[in-house]
Amino acid sequence: MAGSSVTVCSDRLFKVLVIGDLGVGKSSIILRYVNKRFDERYKASIGVDFALKTVEWDARTVVRLQLWDIAGQERFKKMSRVYYKGAMGAIVVFDLTNSLTLGAASEWKQDLDSKVCLDSGGPIPAVLLANKCDMTNRDADLSSLDNFCEENSFVGWFETSAKDNINIDEAGAFLVRQMMLCDTELSNEEHRWDRIKVSQAPGESQSQSLCCWRPRL
To answer: How many CA atoms lie within 13 A of 204 on its CB side?
Structure first.
């Protein structure tokens, strides 16, 4: 009887936050990324909206992204701890035609880092999007973004345009790659912890291992 091979497929689900000030284009970026379209009519998000994006990452891996579109109004920041819980990645957006939104992006990132983190204690992967690059009336200096990202612990940044579909998919793929790396490192750490528990001699202290372990948010 001929041998048969079985292909093992992996299905990953990641919660991704999309945050930034009012009017920077968060909803338009999500609409372009998920539905491949752009709507000229602007409608501010109220509270939080949701979208689901499925990515065939490779022949054996399907990635499902649960995108949380967090409203940019100041009053919703007070509820951010509830919204952020369980997130594995974030997209922080600012408007290239309004330099004030770049400063606000730093505040959003600080708020994010204070309320959610990886099991290791480090910040979740976050990518910065300099949106509306199709506009000519730019007000922000891109030359400082490398330092800005380093100072604020962003994994990278992209110039984007939801209207002209510039770098939207590229930024999404980059963030997924970063989350996959973190998820793989977490799985490896969990397996290492299991091996420690199994191989540990009776009566041996577990305090050293326990102090480095934190439950997933």
So the answer is: 10
Q: What is the DSSP string of 88-126?
A: -EEEEEEETT-THHHHHHHHHHHHHHHH---TTSSPPPE
Cα distance between residue 21 and residue 83, in whole Å: 16
Burial of 87 (0-12, 13-18, 19+ CB in 10 A): buried
Enter the DSSP assignment of 201: P
pLDDT tens digit sequence for 57-97: 988 999 999 999 988 555 555 667 888 999 999 999 999 99
pTM value?
A: 0.80
Helix-strand-coil split of the chain, %, nearest 5: 40, 25, 40
How far the first Cα of the chain sits from its last, in Å, is 48
Across the beta sheet with 126-131, what order do the strands follow? 48-58, 61-70, 10-20, 89-95, 126-131, 156-159
